[in-house]
Specification:
Number of strands: 0
Structural class: mainly alpha
Distance between the termini: 102 Å
Order of helices and strands: HHH
Shape: elongated
Helix content: over 70%
Strand content: under 5%
Largest sheet: none
Length: 89
């Protein structure tokens, strides 16, 4: 007969987590902090030049479009306000 040697994967992860957890009251050392920063820095995915250029153009065009819309609304509201004031005064 065969024995099932199945283990729960979460049990393995829990045992690893328990080993790595430092005391909650102790602060990490300076070298541990620097090592953490280096590890996080390696995870950064930098955009390509083409991707960066495309997104920059998108932001500029969107900003110009919003500026034109706000300017048009301002002109319409100003004209309407002036019209109302001329009728009342």
């Amino acid at each position: 007969m065969e024995e099932n040697n199945t283990t729960n994967p979460s049990e393995k992860n829990e045992s690893k987590k328990q080993k790595k957890q430092p005391n909650k009251n102790s602060k990490p050392t300076f070298s541990e902090t620097i090592a953490d920063y280096k590890a996080e820095y390696k995870k950064i995915v930098w955009p390509t030049r083409q991707d960066l250029a495309r997104k920059t153009v998108t932001v500029i065009l969107t900003s110009l479009l919003v500026g034109v819309i706000v300017s048009c609304m301002d002109m319409v509201y100003s004209a309407g306000y002036d019209c109302i004031l001329s009728l009342l005064g």
